[in-house]
Fold each of these.
Amino acid sequence: MNGPHDLGGQMGFGPVAPEKDEPYFHAEWEKRALGLTLSGGALGAWTIDESRHARENIPPAEYLGASYYEIWTRALEILLERHGFVTAAEIDAGHKQMEPVTPKRILKAEMVAGVLAKGGPCDRPVETEPRFQPGDRVRTRNFNPETHTRLPRYARAKAGIVEAVQGSFVFPDDNAHGKGENPQWVYTVAFDAAEIWGEGADPMLTVSIDAWESYLEHV
Amino acid sequence: MSADHHHHDHDHHHHGHGHDNRYTDMHARVKALETVLTEKGLIDPKAIDEIVETYETKIGPRNGARVVAKAWSDPDFAEWLTTDATAAIASLGYTGRQGEHMRAVFNTPDTHNLVVCTLCSCYPWAVLGLPPVWYKAPAYRSRAVIDPRGVLAEFGVTLPETKKIRVWDSTAELRYLVIPERPGGTDGLSEEELADLVSRDAMIGTAIAGPRP
């Protein structure tokens, strides 16, 4: 979707303003928001792709005004409600009012080290050979789905060079919507800045994305 | 907009510096959510403590700095990083969440690498820990791909105009670690001493390696 999250090339946000000796957290609630987001994911009811789509569906004015832990928390509330774990009324009340659906698992303290060390690999085998090879000249497709995609707007309908075949991975555009993992080959595709930004582009700049096979066409 | 007004907006954006409404609201909102989920038996608050402690004390940029220091010291390890970064990094014990599919990109005299996630906040947690606020915020995510030299200048890094810049937008599940150039005059240093020269930002590409200023 062409949501507020798709920020590449937008202007007006001011300087980056890195914070010297930035702490890991700026408030206690951020610690809890991190832990709640990971614990919510561990319930096993949604994928990382569905959670990303929940975040990018936050209305633009709210998304752009929110800190990232706030974005995570808002999306977590939506996901928990969607999958029957809590109701909005319960969150408002701050107490349990009804029984939740049964989760696949509950993240207990003693499981944390193992779960974090294992992570969630999302490479999957595919039957087909890669359609593109390093050195191939390709063009990204031009589409504007209302659904989840990982092809940013700035890199649509742009010609680039395949640099690497990176393996085959879960296809987020489907997986975010419960349509299955449907893995595809993923390629690193490099673009000259002039192809993306046109006049005035930095002549020494190359930008690359990692693109699923169905994002690409031969030139 | 007056200077005062601008200053207020700046503080508001970097929540936590002032106790404004958003801060208060989020504190209450997150507390309510944790209470409900705990009462329902869906979460273990001690698991949250454990997650926080892990990222405050165990998984942070020192992991990545050790990877870089070993790459500088051991050409075979550097080669392994180029061919299978996930396995090479795992050999040092750094695996798991947001480090499942690693790629190492090497700065050279010709090319400077910079990593961003324009679409969300993808970041190599296993080697760098939790991302800083600026990495997840719109200013960096919007500008890194169109004006990386301007962004670098805000970090105090000025590259020669003849130096190529390569920006890696983490749009899939690959996570990128920048291997900065080894500073001169460091021939006799141990890996632990070399790791002291590698900041988090140097491994994102918004700094170069060297003694802490």
Amino acid sequence: MATAILDDVMVGQPAQAAPEAMVVRFAGDSGDGMQLTGGQFTLSTALAGNDLATFPDFPAEIRAPQGTLFGVSAFQINFGSTEIETAGDAPDVLVAMNPAALKTNVGALKPGGLIIADSGEFTRRNLEKAHYAVNPLEDGSLAKWQLLAFDISKLTLDAVKPFGLGNKEALRCKNMWTLGLALWMFDRDRQPLIDWLNGKFAKNQVLADANVAALNAGHAYGETAELSGPLRQMHMAPAKSEPGLYRTVTGAEAISFGLVAGAQLAGLPMFFGGYPITPASAILHNLVRLKEFGVTTFQAEDEIAAIGSAIGASYAGHLGVTSSSGPGIALKGEAMGLAVMTELPLVIINSQRGGPSTGLPTKTEQSDLYQAVYGRNGDTPMPVISCRSPSDAFECAIEACRIAVQFMTPVILLTDGYIANAAEPWKVPDPASFAPFPVSFLEAKNGPNDTLLPFARDEKGARPWIKPGTPGLMHRIGGIEKAPGTGNIDYSPESHQAMTDARKAKVDGVAQHIPHQDVALGETSGKLVVVGWGSTFGPIHQAVRRMRGKGFDVSHVHVRHIWPMPENLGALLKSYEHVLVPEMNTGQFKTVLRDQFLVDAKPLAKTSGQPFTIAELELAIGTFFDGIPGNEGGEVPADATQLPSIEAVNP
Amino acid sequence: MNDMTPIGGVTTTLKDWETDQEVRWCPGCGDYAILKAVQRTLPELGADPANTVFVSGIGCSSRFPYYVESYGFHTIHGRAPAFATGIKLANPELDVWIVTGDGDGMSIGGNHTMHILRRNLDCQILLFNNEIYGLTKGQSSPTSRLGTNSPTSPLGSYDRPASPCAFALGSGARFVARGFDVSKELTGVLKAAYHHKGAAFIEIFQNCIVYNKDVFDDFAAPKGAEGRQLWLKNGEPMLFGSEKSGGVKGIALDHDALMLKVVDVIAKDDGTPDWKAAGVIVHDVTNRSVAYMLVDLRATPKFADFPMALGVIYDDPRPTFETAVADERARASKGKTPDLAALLKRGQTWTVES
């Protein structure tokens, strides 16, 4: 596994002793192009057939002052010849492009791990900015790691000299030099990168050539260094995967594709109303480029207009979709109530980030579960689905579309900043393999004696969808309480009770049209079940797998349908002696489970804006088997070795 | 503009536009007159009830859709323009009418009013301005005059009012008009708005007989009205008043101060007013500079001398938002086939053999 790297692999060992998995972290100034380097390294890893998971971490500031601790941008990738579910705990290799990147990340590096540092950036000025009194490359303070420091800046300048770039432009090629070295280290093919560079700089061949030269120079440096120094090349075998065609995908891409697929399966054009917000904007950016699929995108003046326009489009017969992050979802709350009240289909995506208020815009959290399930005025039930990984997001988006149109209801799809930005290999699905759920609009009056009943209900409790423009079916809808059937304004006690009950029954009934809850790993009963939802799937799954390997009676249940929950979930949870619910919040799903099923679910909370590590979860599982009463669950403290680095956030 | 050919081509009567719902406005409310004016106008336009959507926010005026036999969507406070935008983008064939008020459209929804106007979505926006919050029982609104007594301003309001038409022009509106609830010219204004391709903004002064009774009497009261109302007609001189109201007057440009002024107009020998001699301006609905001055007549220190500018103040169409959205989608889709399976396989992929 990722953390069980053979520490001596990097140094003095032949290449054939490659480990199962390896964690590499690229860290540099936000202007150094670390996310791009990480992204391209990810692609090359995927093309080499390794399984992988990534964790991009970048500052909220767009251009933080150069060289500062809070301007450090990092990208971690865990890849291997085995199944990879998380971005990995501690890195085996750290690439530090400046003193600030070293300072904020070296604490995370495993003992004996390899540091690759650009000594050219360790100037007095940069050392001061990183609060180093003495150059750490020279004072022996990095002794417990393998250190490879050389002047990447100068080597890059030398490599691109023939192209006559200015100093600043030339130094921008540093990341390609570094990537070249990384490609050599892991025995990767450079050609896809060269193709990509030629495409990216198609309009500026000199820049393309310079970047390719830098890439090749970094690669060549590896070969030379191998002869004289501690660096060794390794070849990692491809992971065993299901046969088929693969690509990499981020959560934001997968959701965009899933929405397009969902609209196609419903036979509808799609309307997407959005307003820029981190980390949700990527979905809008993706859909803007998919207009040939009958997608209309609308960048609204605010979050309220974004959802309002989407509801308007649904009313007019499109599949309305809106997307935001917690603060924006809060603004949309009143309009969500209107969508519930007028019973129009709508998909609302929340890319969760740390809250409350502005909170941690670029960091991840799962703390909007209460908001999704309960966060509206009135009795306002709404189905909620959550995705567990970038590739899972595709199916979840389709499922959200299906429930929205089949039940004439808004549906919330929860994802988070981690899933939105992270990439993983994805077995390309065949859209034709999903069962279509075509929509039909009401075309003629549906009541007795030639009357129209816009709020008549079908066997699912859903009302008919009536498009304006349909002759003879003119009617009025709105947010005021209405009479059953006719939908005419009616605040009478009987009507409000009947309509409140009908709205609730409809959403509760979704439970009969979703899959039964399965067990992700382990047995359907036993001593302990770890229940997760959303992006904690990876670390929980690995932790349960390892603990089961050590003989512990623990199983993993992962819940996709947060509301309503699968019909068998309560009985399933009650078949275990203990229930542990790890969440990146203070225990929100735990509370819902307790409320719904009267089970003694124990919370495991992590609210540092960092995902769980596998080790933390193993420890928490262990407390149920150590014979010590009362130490189960609780809170996991912030981890100084994890991304986001505590020092980078708060120097 | 009464002689325009109905573009909808559907034959209806006023009765066809009435619903079976009991109208719930206060007896004597100006909203009744506006509702009738709209229901009278729609048949004349040849509008099709099945193709017409009335969208509203919250407030007294926003109950309007329930009383019109067409499609109707009573949404949330201030947000009707957002819903209307989604409706029109999803189906540009629909005739979209927005009904809002001074609280709904200028206060909580001011932002949306601005953006729908600048984008120029093809629709009619009827802003019922009664200078008060009616449905919440009489609080002062963003258009209340200084000193308005209300439950939230018992000593008189002290925040300065906004001017809806000036706001509309400032937001980029290409059609700005005014009328008032009981004015017989209102149907003509509604028709002009309907025929304008783009966002047509109409401020309709509306008498709230419970909380702000007769607040518009300074220009809307029948007695002496001709001397206080300037009904603008494209291509005609800006004349108002009569011998009865103290003489025929006109609007001219004060070239030194670069502002409008009121001038006396002397009759020629044949009895017709010699407006040319008085320098009276001919109304040109495409003149944006003059439109700015007309909507702001009341804001000048010499307001007492000026009439209220009414009718179509500005009308100069330009391409609409929904057309631009459709054009862009067509350009972006050109030469591409909507093949999702192919899209998913695009870019760098690899194959795992069995």
Amino acid sequence: MTAISPLETVHKKGLFGDHHKKNENDLLKISEVKDLTIVQVVQYKRSKINLNSIQIDGLDFPLQSPKVSSNKETRILWSAPNTWLVISRKERIIKTVKEKCNSDNFAITDISHSRAIIQIKGFQAKDLLKKGCPLNFNELGNNNCAGTVFHGINIVIDFVDKDPDTFNLLTLRSFGESFYHHITDAALEFGYVGV
Amino acid sequence: MLEIKCPYCGKRSQNEFSYGGDASLKRPQLEKEISDKDWDDFVYFRSNPRGKHSELWHHVAGCRQWFKVLRNTATHEIFKTAKINEEL
Amino acid sequence: MDQNFRIDKAGYINRNKKISFKFNGKKYFGYEGDTLASALLANGIHLVGRSFKYHRPRGFIGAGVDEPNAQVQLYKGAKTEPNAVATLVELVEGLEATSQNCWPSVSFDFGAINNLLNKFFPAGFYYKTFMWPKNFWYKIYEPIIRRAAGLGVAPLKPDPDRYEHIFEHCDLLVAGSGPSGLASALAAAKNGARVILAEDKSRFGGSLLTDEVTIGNKKGKDWADDTITQLKSMPNVIVKNRSQVFGYYDHNMLVMNERTKDHIKDPHKFTPRQKLWYIRAKEVIISTGSIERPLVFGNNDRPGIMLASAAKEYMKVYGVLVGKKPIIFTNNDSAYDTAIEFKKNGIDPLVIDVRANSESSAIKEAKNLNINIKFSHGVINTKGYLRVSSATIGKLNSNKSSYESLENVSCDCICVSGNWTPTVHLSSQSGNKLKFDEKTDAFIPSQSRQNETTVGSANGIFSLKQSLDEGFNKGYELSNKITGKNSKSTTPTSNEKKYGSHEKFWCMPLPKNKNYKRFVDFQNDVAVSDVELAVREGFRSIEHVKRYTTLGMATDQGKTSNLNGLQLVSNIEDKIVPEVGHTTFRPPYTPVTIGAIVGREVGKYYRPTRKSPMHLWHEKNNAVFVDAGLWLRPRYYKQGKETLFEASKREATNVRNNVGICDVTSLGKIDIKGPDTAEFLNRVYTNAWMKLPVGKARYGVMLREDGIVFDDGTTTRISENHFHMTTTTAQAVNVLAHLEYYLQVVWPELDVNVLSTTEQWAGVALAGPNSRNLLSKLFPEIDVSNESLPFMGYKEGSLFGVPARIFRISFSGELAYEINVESGYGIFMWEKIIELGKEMNLEPYGTEALSTLRIEMGHVAGSEIDGRVISSDLSLEGMLSKKKDFIGKRSLNREAFLNPNREKIVGVVPLDKKTMIPEGSYLVKDSNATLPNPKLGHISASCWSVEYNNPFSLAILKDGKKKIGEKLFALSPLKNKNIEVEIVSSHYVDPKGERVRS
């Protein structure tokens, strides 16, 4: 039984906006990121465990905003004091997290189904985000994340790659269609390809 | 639109936050006797200064932490922000 | 075609691109780079509109934002725009403009009768007339005034254009690209700062476009162009033209409106028409220049009378002569540049100077060109109805109070200059306390409240050399402060004319026995006599004078009238100007179209919507949706031609008799974990939680600290330190914030984590006598008998391979269960249930049926928990624990809360068993009593009881429990209803609660 992704009936493939007379390779690429496992990990206040002693998929827990620890499959985002989002392609990651972080010291909650995730990729990506998000993008570097708003919708921005700039944008599942509309609408001026 | 320095996330725009009232409020202890007057003061009475006001803000779109802000209610100038367990 | 007033080889327009446009239905030609104003002037047209109150013929006064008169209606239909200022409209092929506020035409306007009756329309006449007889107001006066008022016509169709927003951050924002602005931007950019340079006009350079100066051996404009090229090549600089910074807000946020599309004939489809930039700048340089002051004299508002600097700009930038017989009327040296420019183009101007003499280089140059100058003279009055044709000039006596001689001079334009008003709007908006500068005779910035600096003529500095110095120094200083770098640029040398001082005399006295109207505010038709009247009637504060006379309140915001008005008041009151003060500067600097402010939050997406994972199924099955906060929930599922009433009755009946399924995903779910969770719940809820067994759910009520009921829900203990809390849809967000507040601020010693999981789980309610049957089909491997899964029980299981949570809880009051699966499987779950439920006649039900079911059961919801009631009002006093303290408990001792006569929840049934009682109706003892009729209570929720087949309502009624059995009246003046009712128990159906436990 495969789960239905949040944007399955919403995301459209193809060329859109002012894409004419532009090289298709240069166009902004918009896609839905599916099948990621997302786990909230919170270290309890009275826990005496030293965080340095724990690695998830070889990654350390980042200790402050806006840091992200990452490898090709897994990313650990700083979310709040003693709170992280572990986001991974590996389905087994939940098991790993529960083994490494025992329930006496950590609160672990699977929220994989609660988010709709859109990826935008291209040199226009930051400009697109600036149309709806008041964050200072001059100070957001690669492998940084930030919880903020886009056109009034709460999102988490995960800067996953450069050359070209690539962002994973997470929002609550129920907002998915509204969020997708605002992202694609902001991309019309540049022209984009839905992949 | 104010710019508020969340002690955890740095400077962010006002629309990521929600205002939380007077920071000097100390909730009386549970199970402890308290006079009607003192309880009413806690529930209802607030000072309404024209000038520096220490208040709480909630970073709802970000780290979801409550923190303290010292703000001038007439000019909006923000002097300082601090974590809940720190002094302003 | 004609363009008889175009000068050959002059200006910065593109003569290779001819553009056709229409004005008042007639076709004309101009060039690319023209504004509508310059193109009309090139065709000899000065008369463009009629003034607001008196309908006097009016023409152009300025060449930019200073223009108060030339407002036109652009285009037609959805694109039409009223009050467009012709001096700001860029000429584009196909432009169509018409005059406003005149009928049948601008040259023959019936409205001009107002001018003949002007004695009856002085300032403040609104407050003194149209008062009697009283009933004439609605029928006669108001309709006439409404038709006559206003300038342009608002469009009746939605704005067809796209507008977008941009949030940008920079080190330095420079507003204005005159010499001081360019200098600042260049110096800062070269020193590594991130710079945004904003220029309102299409051309950069400000005064360098019109002044005869050189900078570093280049002509002023060439230096400007080179600087812009340099800035545009730097990666740390954003250069924007057609972009006006119109407002300065808190914490150095400024908003800039970029006009992206209006000047382009066939733009790209998705290019927005305008972009609104929200710029957060670490430092701001305000280099907004200054605006020329008009002189005030008799009939100084005729078409053809304009600012001297505007006349100069039309010649130098657009290559247009504003007249061929000009008078230059001035109290300072700068206007002589206009006279010189006329002379250079073969026209002989006459200069009227109120000063006795002046020896500056500008005057010397004028004299060398044999320009006719009359010192100690002033223009007193003018003639020429649709265009100025002559002026009466007079020789002023020694103290400038009267005239020694008068003469008439023919002319076709009068170019006036009363000196300059620094443009301090942004500075003042930022909180800067301005000060009055004696030398400039105007307000300039003084004490900053935010990180802003004003340079150039906006700061009262009118010398080019000083402006450049100031600009380069400030640009370096501010960038060094931010970047710490030390790359200092040298200020280039410059050459400019030397100007002397001006005479502080700008209002011509009236000759004996003459009553000419001397205008101060052109757009609102405010004259000297109006200001004098206001002061005579006792208005002293400049804010009062402004509002009484409407001086400075028009769409030009008094750019050419505020200072004159202020000085007039101070002269009359015999005070100095700073004592009189100035009115508050408010954004926007010039009008901004509302579409730009709204941006893309239009139409369907004006606010976000939240949809459940099963939304598409609801849509396909004829669900009619209702807004529940941001959520879209099915209200009912329409079969055939059903009405809301019929559908909800059918759905609710099916639940009572059979089984129904409802999408309850939107209700808040909060996952709570941690060693102190049970203790925390104990403090938050009114009832006890420590001993709740694992695998059991409990109904909970939360109070605010003032004792008022905040929210209710069902919370389940999944394991020792793991709870699943539910909340109402409406309060989900607030409850989470409430819990976080108490955990972070009040009881940080508690070790608990709260996390919203509303979206992680799709939720359905299965309700009705057949729900257990259906449940057993869904979970064939689980024992779902009454013993194994009792009321308030919890189990986990697999729904055909999908992990599921089963809660035996009931909102409807029937035997019911709530099933949660992870959202991605929501549709699978829903469709499985529909499939397996077919043989049982399972039907989906929406919020309307859901309401019906809970109302007739007497279960409280948001309409009862309205922020005014306490637990005992809702018959929930049994849930108030006596053993432990909790949030809000202490408030319950208040006298008003202990009053036995407080409102209580009851049921209400109409005696005729037919009439639905409108929600919000008042309950009274005697419906015929005279007002005020004591209100005993109100109806909180109404439904059609499917159990009893009659209307039933819940109400909050004073002393409710004791009134059961009594007859009262339900009154709704809004819906014109007066219904006799009987009070019954709120638990109309199944009062013992047997069904949920079956």
Amino acid sequence: MDFTDSTEEAAFRAEANAFLSQHLQPKKGAASRSGNYLQRAKDWQKVKAENQFAQITWPKEIGGRGGSSMQQVIWNQEESKFDAPTGPFAIGLGMCVPTVIAFGSDEHKQRYVQKALFGEEIWCQLFSEPAAGSDVAGLKTKAVKDGDDWVINGQKVWTSGAHYSDYGIVLVRTDPDVPKHKGLTMFIIDMKQEGVDVRPIHQASGGSEFNEVYFTDVRIPDADRLGEPGMGWKVALVTLMNERLAVGGSPGPDWAEIMDYARSSGSMSDQAFRAKLADWYVAAQGYKLTKFRTQTALSKGETPGPENSIGKVITANHLQDICNSAIEMQDHYGIISDKDHAPADAIFQESFMWAPGLRIAGGTDEILKNIIAERVLGLPQDVRVDKDKPFSAF
Amino acid sequence: MNFDFSDDQKFLRDEARKFLEAQCTSGHVRAVLDDETMSHNDEVWQKIVEMGWLGAAIPEEFGGLGLGMLELCVIAEELGRVLAPVPFGSSAFFFAEAIKLAGTDEQKAEWLPKVADGSIVGCLATTEGPGALSASSVQTTAKDGVLSGTKVPVTDGDVATHAAVLAKEGSGTGIYIVALDQDGVSRKSLKTIEPTRSHAEIKFDGASAARLGQETGNGMSVLDQIMNRGAVLLAFEQLGGASRCLEMATEYAKERHAFGRPIGGNQAIKHKLADIYVKNEVARSNAYYGAWALSTDAAELPEAAAAARVAASEAFWFASKENIQTHGGMGFTWEVDCHLYYRRAKLLAVQAGSPAVWKEKLVSALEAKNAA
């Protein structure tokens, strides 16, 4: 057991770090959103692509590095130490474009892959709907064939980056008269065309990072279909499988931050707080060290075990609990989120308002536990009364 | 990055599992459970002695196999899975580690070969009453190599031949090695909630004893280091038990039908078992980190050991109680093994300091680190 890189890994890490140091500033706290963030993101993506750091595991023929998953992990770790504007490309290059590569025609690959890789075009993923969240296969947006086109009507929701995306992959219902998983089809959609209406969602946290997307008689050529009609669910599973290995740290303040606050405010003598701090440390370490186990498998060229499925179940609740305690430690004063007054630049108050969303986004706590129970432990699937009946029967 | 056991260590684990599943069955555990006069299962014990596992982490020059701490961790997990009703932990995790850590060369040469070959059985005697152990709570006294006082309970205290005993000496404390078959020692078996591991009250009345190491008055700090080492090993034993509980509960949830389908199809059961899985994986990752710190004598051992211990105690407790719950009424019968794990989980959680004690140790270690 050791935590050191192999010789090859250390060499790659040094190379990555040298490259990053040349182009970016070290990160202090959260990544900076200042300036023209979108343009900065596009510029950074271009520099990465020109130097084969954009998609480490992609083959060289399509602009990748032909590297290993472990090298991608190392790159992500190193990049996260710098103030790198990566957000706008995470979903497109991590999920959408790999789906285009897997199911698209040669023309699609020629047209889209390089432009996405070099930061010229941004992609979004349009799956969730108001009536189809956890049960995404229950979506209602419909597409009807009309000549060589399909005509799309309906609504998507929680679409990250839709307002600045050029293209998207959209999952729609093309046949309501078969069971829900069998009547779906995936398309490439031009987000800038007529009939696509993007509206920001005003989130409970106060911000607007996500969108609703409305489709009114939007025409998509049949040539932009990914996979056969009715095969959309299988295509969507490939999209979701491509979700990048989560390697970032906790998405907000952790045990160290609340311990810093407790020390500065004289709360370290509180025995109840000390016991909770120990629990937070154990959970944070459990999360971090479990990722090391996953990396070990990758480093050996093995398929990681199911242990990394515990990640978000731990981190989202963990964050919520820490923020809640930090606010209560501040007593009445804890209600203040004004950075001029609130301790620690109001990080606890801000994440307190984010935490409910984290427990839902990318699979709710409940769905993630179902997945662990069914796929890891092999327990029976939930009752799905609509599974074998035509979608239109409901 | 190599945060995993080696292929050789995994081979040892597989072999140990096969051996224990055949040689240490539920029947062997229940033999001790159902017979008040049995302190341990000697048939199982003699076979484990023959395997040489007691000396896994004892250097070859002292009669051990000289493998290492990681190998001992692997063995600990397997013993935990089968609830081995033997004094392995007392002798190999605590007594031997105490001597390895603090003993003089003569003491190592005298005792370690005997632990390794099973000719003596060691135990650790610290507790004297309810509540967390502290220097001021120790009444047992050592003076001029003579020990007086009472330790209660001592895990494996009635099968052990020797004890490492925490005692007052002068204004400080010391750890003393005592032979338990002498005139100045009397023992009484205790009834406990975990009868598959024996417990005794041990009275010392002028027993002759030898101080561990040469330094005087530093018993509590030596004990602290012994506990850090033992905590990692116990964490693996706990992890083995917690893993087995999840397997039992999962198997049962697939087989047991109610309302026309397996109970494991209900989210109340699925989410419960997913919660066990998450806690077990958190415990496993923390235990691995503890193993790394232990095997490399890392400066991080205090926090790594404490985190391993806190996570493992929580995981085994949770898994053992929810395993009973998943089994329903059957889980509350004497014949089904669930209660054996519930009993063992509690013993292992309090045996070397309760979760509250280790949480405090963990936070103190983090404070010390941040202050530096």
